[in-house]
């Protein structure tokens, strides 16, 4: 996947940067303070470059990475080029670990967005009620119902959602 195929991520959250940094540190056997610091030891520099390459591949700009790392964007660009050319030995381990963390962060963001969209919206459409629910694969059109039937249908839908939420929370061990 090319950088141009990704949606731009204008800002890099300090939390996301720190999680990627920690993953890279653990994978390469270094400490977070070494990666954040100004040391120029080859192992530390290469691990740092690998983390920056993973962030860049995830769609963050060099400027955003530089701001998060307290470095100039040209330094970040140089590190990314060295990883791409294979000149930064040991950077691949840190890059892989950081990429896994970033994948998890994107998944969490998608789940949070889905949860915000789960509210049911109903609109009148040609005498029918159009139910749009983020949990359903496609919008479902119900025939026009009497008031009593609509209330009963709404209760059934609520019970379905509650049961789905209950099973999800049981899987996660929240109940």
Structural class: mainly alpha
Helix content: 55-70%
| Broad shape | elongated
- Are there runs of 5+ residues with pLDDT below 50, and where? 119-127, 129-136
Q: How is the main sheet built?
A: 3 strands, antiparallel
Round the mean pLDDT to the nearest integer and report it: 76
Radius of gyration: 23 Å
- End-to-end gap: 40 Å
Describe the protein's architecture and organization:
There is one protein chain. With 175 residues, the protein is mostly helical. It has 7 helices and 3 strands. The chain has helices at 14-28, 32-36, 42-57, 62-69, 73-85, 91-116, 147-172, and strands spanning 121-125, 128-132, 140-142. The protein has a 3-stranded antiparallel beta sheet with strand order 1-2-3, with no helix packed on it. The chain is elongated and about 75 Å long.
Key descriptive features of the protein:
3 strands; elongated; 7% strand; 175 residues; mainly alpha; 7 helices
Please give a quick description of this structure:
By secondary structure, this protein is mainly alpha-helical.
Helix-strand blueprint:
Blueprint (H helix, E strand, L loop, with lengths): L13 H15 L3 H5 L5 H16 L4 H8 L3 H13 L5 H26 L4 E5 L2 E5 L7 E3 L4 H26 L3
Antiparallel strand pairs: 1-2, 2-3
Helix pairs in contact: 1-3, 1-6, 3-5, 3-6, 4-5
């Amino acid at each position: 996947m090319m950088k141009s195929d990704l949606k731009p991520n204008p800002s890099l959250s300090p939390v996301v940067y720190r999680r990627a940094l920690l993953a890279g540190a653990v994978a390469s056997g270094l400490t977070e303070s070494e990666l954040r610091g100004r040391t120029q030891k080859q192992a530390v520099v290469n691990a740092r470059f690998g983390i920056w390459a993973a962030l860049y591949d995830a769609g963050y700009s060099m400027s955003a990475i530089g701001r998060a790392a307290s470095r100039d964007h040209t330094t970040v660009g140089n590190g990314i080029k060295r990883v791409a050319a294979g000149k930064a030995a040991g950077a691949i381990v840190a890059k892989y670990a950081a990429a896994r963390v970033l994948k998890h962060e994107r998944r969490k963001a998608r789940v949070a967005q889905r949860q915000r969209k789960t509210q049911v919206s109903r609109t009148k459409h040609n005498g029918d009620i159009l139910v749009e629910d983020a949990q359903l694969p496609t919008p479902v059109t119900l025939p026009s119902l009497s008031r009593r039937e609509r209330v009963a249908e709404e209760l059934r839908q609520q019970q379905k959602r509650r049961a789905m939420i209950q099973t999800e929370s049981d899987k996660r061990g929240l109940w």
